[in-house]
Specification:
Number of strands: 0
Shape: flat
Radius of gyration: 31 Å
Largest sheet: none
Helix content: over 70%
Oligomer: single chain
Order of helices and strands: HHHHHHHHHHHHHHHHHHHH
Length: about 500
């Protein structure tokens, strides 16, 4: 137990050193590298865990994005990935990403309590042995310390530089008091200890989740109720009466009723969506005249999110009807084609949302919200593709959750690795005149990762209103270095 606490103590001190009076930058990448290296040294079995390995790759990639892009989204992607890696570190057999995410969140709060219980148990065991747990350490420290003192005196007398360095060190210790700076250092040390403790004291109660995920499979399995003999034969054979069918299986009559209901539902929904898509094709895709500003605003600020919510509800409808044995009903010639058509039409609706968004971009330029819509649409299109595969190949809900969870994670990682304020600024300056450009949005609303572009533009007022340098430069500290702020400072100079 005591040796397991040494790595998190070392990492806690490193955390306090790297982040005290420093913003996130290259220090984040260094700390992640130290954490992963120490975890693999203390628990080499983690290197054989596929989930841990690829999540660590995502963590280092996200840390690199923080150093290069230094955006809020890159930091969110990093912190979320950190929780995912912590979850995968709890069990080598864990592979379901949602279990890993939940375990990571729970471990952060539960690991200190588990460490306290283990330490208290160790103290009780050592107390029963008749000696204090600190006594062996004191015996091993006293003799080396006694031998160190005379040699230290001799070396100090022979080397004035060493003596001056020791004097400075003693002066710094004497000046140290519990002022806010010291309290902040203590807080950072404690936070670093809490963040890393779960890597070295893994949970032992995850066997239930591991066993549960063993039953997860991509393809659906038909459930069949166990056939029992009639009651009079069962009594003659000494068997129990016929049990009721399990709740997961429905009778043939119930399945046929559910089938008719599903066909009617998908039929009506397809007709309604076909009318919607036909309207979009006419007035959104094939519109040749200039669209009014009010229509464009309605497209993006109201229509877009309504359509996205409708697509999410469409996915829920498919999941509701394509559950259990309804997937295996033989006399069901219309259900699967109608469901496929429903998914395809929702894909067309998602593309229409993209066209609406593009019309708005053409009229008013790029913005972060319009970029976020593109990310959401890409994830929705991928989700519809996996939903189509579920209907066609009779795949399970866990397949959808695992596949789309990993896709969302990878999409956010890649999305966070792009300097979107820079992309938006470049696009708007290239496609709009100085009078059309929304300078207030570029200079005041967007994050500062685009400052180097605005500083180089003759019509920008950034240089005249520049009120200082980024916060990390206030400390002139290498730990906070990041490429985005460095590039802005180079442009300013």
């Amino acid at each position: 137990m005591k040796y397991r606490l040494l790595p998190p103590l070392f990492l806690a001190l490193a955390y306090a050193f790297l982040f005290h009076h420093a913003e996130l930058g290259i220090n984040l990448f260094i700390f992640d590298a130290l954490l992963i290296g120490t975890a693999l040294w203390a628990r080499p079995e983690l290197g054989k865990h596929a989930g841990f390995v690829w999540s660590v790759g995502g963590l280092l990639f996200a840390a690199g994005s923080v150093v290069i892009v230094h955006s809020d989204l890159s930091m969110v992607a990093h912190h979320g990935t950190f929780v995912l890696v912590l979850g995968y570190a709890q069990a080598r057999e864990l592979r379901f990403c949602w279990y890993a995410l939940l375990l990571g969140i729970g471990t952060f709060f539960e690991a200190p309590l588990r460490g306290w219980r283990r330490w208290r148990t160790l103290r009780r065991q050592q107390a029963k042995g008749g000696h204090s747990p600190a006594l062996p350490w004191l015996k091993q420290v006293v003799i080396p310390a006694a031998l160190l003192l005379p040699f230290l005196g001799l070396y100090l007398g022979a080397n004035d530089k060493l003596s001056a360095g020791l004097n400075h060190f003693i002066t710094a210790l004497s000046d140290l008091s519990l002022h806010p700076t010291s309290l902040w250092s203590i807080f950072l040390t404690g936070l670093g200890f809490l963040l890393t403790l779960g890597y070295f004291l893994p949970r032992t109660d995850v066997s239930r989740l591991v066993k549960q995920q063993l039953g997860f499979r991509d393809d659906l399995v038909r459930t069949r109720p166990k056939r029992m003999p009639p009651p009079h034969l069962a009594a003659y054979l000494g068997e129990h009466p016929r049990p009721r069918p399990p709740k997961t299986s429905r009778s043939p009559l119930a399945l046929k009723a559910a089938y008719r209901q599903a066909v009617l539902t998908f039929g009506l929904l397809n007709l309604l969506l076909a009318l919607m898509n036909a309207t979009d094709l006419r007035y959104v895709w094939l519109e040749t005249g200039e669209v009014s500003a009010a229509t464009l605003s309605q497209y993006v600020h109201t229509g877009t999110w309504n359509l996205l919510v409708s697509i999410a509800l469409a996915m829920v409808v498919v999941l509701y009807y394509f559950r259990g044995n309804l997937n295996f009903l033989r006399e069901a010639p219309y259900l699967t084609p109608l469901a496929k058509l429903w998914v395809i039409q929702n894909g067309l609706l998602a593309l229409s949302v993209g066209v609406r968004n593009w019309h708005y971009v053409e009229a008013y330029g790029l913005a972060l919200g319009r970029v976020y819509i593109i990310l959401v649409l890409l994830l929705i299109l991928f989700g519809l593709y996996t939903l189509f595969r579920k209907v066609r190949d009779r795949l399970s809900l866990t397949y959808l959750l695992q596949t789309n969870g990993l896709a969302a994670w990878l999409g956010i990682l890649l999305f966070a690795a792009v300097n979107w304020p820079g992309v938006i600024t470049r696009y708007n300056l290239a496609t709009q005149t100085a009078e059309e450009t929304d300078w207030y949005y570029l200079e005041k609303t967007l994050p500062g990762e685009n400052a180097f572009l605005l500083l180089q533009h003759p019509d920008s007022g950034v240089r005249a209103t520049w009120k200082g340098v980024p916060a990390w430069h206030e400390y002139a500290d290498w730990r906070s270095w990041n490429y985005a702020d460095w590039r802005n400072l180079q442009a300013l100079e």
